[in-house]
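Example record

One chain of 129 residues, shown exactly as stored in the release files.
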Amino acid sequence: MVDVTPLIRSDQQVIQSYANGVFKVSNVTYEQPIIVTSEATTVWDINNETTVEELQLNDFKTLIDNADHIDVVLFGAGKTMAFLPKNLRLALKEAGLSVDVMDTGAACRTYNVLMAEGRHVACALLPSK
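Predicted structure tokens for this chain:
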């Protein structure tokens, strides 16, 4: 039998689970929006009830500041996918970020796959409630 489990360094952040607004990332539980990269998971400095329509460019400052080191940002918009407002999407692109929007569950799964492949991926997640 061939082991097909991806090799993931022990210091990399792995999204282990998500449900009912709770994330478990590398054995730490979060009950608020988070930003995950392979190096770190941080609480996203936005209100827990923030909607996609309420997000502003400065909400993505941490990601923009690191745009040169990120191939793609996966944005988990909550329980269902919702598009970023056009002006925000264009401003993020101008700031050097490629943002793929999906529901939070899909963003978590996609992050793990891309991170395991060695891609420089970031995941900005709104809780699914």
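Notes: Residues 104-116 form the longest helix (13 residues).
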